Amino acid sequence: MFRGFYTVASGMIAQQRRTEMLTNNMANVNTPGFKAEQSSIRSFPEMLLSSVQSTRIPTENGFNLKGVAPIGPLSTGVYMQETLPLFIQGQLQETELTTDVALVDGFLPTDEETGIQGTIFFTLENDEGGTYYTRNGNFALDANGLLTSPAGYYVLDSNGNRITLQGDDFRVTESGVIMENDNVVATLGISFAARPDTLMKQGEGLFVTENGDNLMTVNNIPDVTYSIQQGFVERSNVDAGRTMTDLLTAYRAFEANQKVLQAYDRSMEKAVNEVGKV
């Protein structure tokens, strides 16, 4: 009976974590560049139950032959294995701000081993001099004229340098070239992740590589195509309707596990207070 407690408890914990993930997706439905999280729930390894049986052999002194008869497999519960961002393109929203730019996916190669499609990011410089990657192009100019992300990280160009502008009167071409007074200032640094599932999320729509190495720039990958739209931002790719449906499903699954747990509890209470008296 106690095995049932553990199985039901694992189901409640898995659904609770899924609810937290979906709630976070809903909270970021209006966050530019946000990529929805998706989860995978797996079962723990099954156990094989067997019963010990005894057969009496009719001999002169009597003989009991013991054996093991298999009953069947028993599931020991479920757990949330991992959460991964969904890197599909979000819709574009026009802002008419010259500092806002949106990445539009073109052809992005697919990894032959995993079947996962690659994706592209803006490149940022973090506080330690390392690199962050983001799809949020809601940029701004700081007091020194440097192009920065909403969190204050510096936007890097294709050579890994910070981008300095005289003001917000500039133009960005579809290939990412920044022009000010018809002069080329810099080219936005766009990086390509062939295996985006290996990136680690850092919050605020930022990603880093597992080993700290920098991603390749798209300039070194001839197969990758993309374009940049100035005056637009990429919206969150969270599907609010589907997320609400998934959220209600997770609530129902949690409640179902809760009712089973309460049934186990009542059975144990009866066994202790009533059967025990007999």
TrEMBL record:
Q: Which residues form the signal peptide?
A: none
Protein's name in the database: Distal rod protein
User: Where does this polypeptide localize?
Assistant: Bacterial flagellum basal body
Q: Which gene encodes it?
A: flgG_1
In the UniProt record, which is one GO cellular component term?
Answer: bacterial-type flagellum basal body
Q: Residue ranges of the Flagellar basal-body/hook protein C-terminal domain?
A: 229-273
Q: Does the keyword Cell membrane apply?
A: no
* Family designation: Belongs to the flagella basal body rod proteins family.
Organism for this UniProt entry: Sporosarcina pasteurii (Bacillus pasteurii)
Principal location = other
Where does the record place the Flagellar hook protein FlgE/F/G-like D1 domain?
A: 116-178
Flagellar basal body rod protein N-terminal domain sequence ranges: 5-35
| Transmembrane feature ranges | none
Cite a single GO BP annotation: bacterial-type flagellum-dependent swarming motility
Which keywords annotate this record?
Bacterial flagellum
